[in-house]
Amino acid sequence: MENLFDNDAENSAEADELTQEQLNEISELSKKGYQLLKEGLLDRAETCFSEILDLDPSNNYALVGMGDTLRKSRHFQDAIKYYQNCLKNNNGNNYALFGLADCYKALHQYNRAIDIWEEYLTHDDKNITVLTRIADAYRKVRNFEKSNEIYQQVLSMEQNNSYCLIGLGHLNYDFRDYEKALYYWEKMLEMNRSHIDIRVLTSLGNCHRKMKTFREGIPYFERALKMQPNNFYALFGLADCYRGLHIPDQSVIYWNKILALDPKNKVILTRAGDAFRNLGDNTKAFEYYTKALDIEFDIYAVLGLAIINRDKGNYEEASSTMKTVIEKDPKNPRFYLECADVYRKWKKDKEALEILSDFLKTGIKNQVIQDMYMELKATIMA
């Protein structure tokens, strides 16, 4: 915007009441304010725009400048007031519309942002930046059709637009079309081989994680770790891929690397506990589960402790704990299966059948539970 201020004072309704000296001062302050804003010197920019508004309270450029300064300072509600004041004087001001929409987006008021960006497009319907922002906002409110339509419109104008490709990747990922998400993020990777964005690498890895093609996901997370050895998403992704591949000795390495950075993360403590349990190290597993529960209740840490008791033959304690877990989350089929397994190892098939029957009464379909129920029923009746 800084190239538009040679005659900025003339845009105010009060400009003709100002002296030539004041008009010249406003013009210089505008140029200076926008240069300071461009350089990120926000306090000094705010001072310049404030001085203009003292002379000319309805100066459009100063109102927008103040809005931009406050928006970049993340004082969104205050910024909104300045943009709105500008739009009262000049309701088609594109800069005020753009800034106002960005404020609403930052405040997660996406529908309001969409309305304002669409108003902006009535003045400039080929603006790719605004189009991608609208598509992003529709993605945030989970309107797949509208978001996809606008992203595709942008691609028809600029086929390798990075923001659009990233947005399409996120859109398809959010709606669980992981293959399409892979397509768009792989395109980003091909376009930027010399300057790879670590977020693209972890996103590609996460697609494979969700698709359970864990081996294909590992190289992306490893590349990300070469760029940032402590990147949480890459560490988590690698640990979870090895977990999915049933290689607990590898997964525990990465769970522990996360815990070195974030020792109070109860989810990771529980995952590490699971890895140690799968390695047969129940002592270490117990330690990690207990640490997780010392921080806050975690249903999977409790489940892990119950499984340890089952494996030790402490069936009464294990079954009691399992029932508590089921009460906390009565729609999770895994908990019923684990509880039934306790009773089967305890040679109490009727109790196992009752637990599975309790799940079937919920009306939730689960083939594994159905098969185990029929198998147990046949065994009891034989």
Number of helices: 21
CATH fold field value of the domain at 1-125: Serine Threonine Protein Phosphatase 5, Tetratricopeptide repeat
Overall geometry: elongated
* Class derived from helix and strand content: mainly alpha
CATH architecture of the domain at 1-125: Alpha Horseshoe
* Rounded mean pLDDT score: 93
Radius of gyration: 30 Å
What is the CATH class name of the domain at 1-125?
Mainly Alpha
Largest sheet: none
Give the distance, in angstroms, between the N- and C-terminal Cα atoms: 84 Å
Helical content class:
over 70%
What is the ordering of alpha helices and beta strands?
HHHHHHHHHHHHHHHHHHHHH
Identify the CATH homologous superfamily of the domain at 1-125: Tetratricopeptide repeat domain
Query: What proportion of the residues form beta strands (DSSP E)?
Result: under 5%
**DSSP summary, beta strand count:** 0
The low-confidence parts are 1-10
Can you describe what's shown?
By secondary structure, this protein is mostly helical. Among the domains are: 1-125, Tetratricopeptide repeat domain (Serine Threonine Protein Phosphatase 5, Tetratricopeptide repeat); 297-382, Tetratricopeptide repeat domain (Serine Threonine Protein Phosphatase 5, Tetratricopeptide repeat, Alpha Horseshoe). The protein has helices at residues 20-38, 42-55, 60-72, 76-89, 94-106, 110-121, 128-140, 144-157, 162-174, 178-191, 198-211, 214-227, 232-244, 248-261, 266-278, 282-295, 299-311, 315-328, 333-345, 349-360, 367-381. It is elongated and about 100 Å long.
